[in-house]
Amino acid sequence: MSRQRSMEAILASEYVSIGELTRLTGARYSTLKFYTEEGMLPFEQAEENLTRRYLRESTVELIYRIKRMKTDGLSIPQIKAALKEER
């Protein structure tokens, strides 16, 4: 198991892991994994170790947008449709 990076190192990185996204946003790991599997959170996958990497700034903003939509009462299908329209 790898050692956790410091918050300073995470904030300086262009790419982060799903675990680091949980630390940045307070969202649960299982929630972010679900959003990823549903195609709501885009990622890149490094072939050498198959680790999913997320662009830090845009993904954190996207997670907060999804949280706001959920707070506003939108369902997952509605959120997915709204995100698809934005792209």
From TrEMBL:
What name does UniProt use for this protein?
A: MerR family transcriptional regulator
Q: Give the originating organism.
A: Paenibacillus antibioticophila
Family matches, as SMART domains: HTH_MERR
Instruction: Set out the biological process GO terms recorded for this chain's protein.
Output: regulation of DNA-templated transcription
Q: Which GO terms describe its molecular function?
A: DNA binding
InterPro entries in UniProt: DNA-bd_dom_put_sf (IPR009061), MerR-type_HTH_dom (IPR000551)
Which SUPFAM superfamilies does the record cross-reference, listed alphabetically? Putative DNA-binding domain
Give the transmembrane region(s): none
Which parts of the sequence belong to the HTH merR-type domain? 15-85
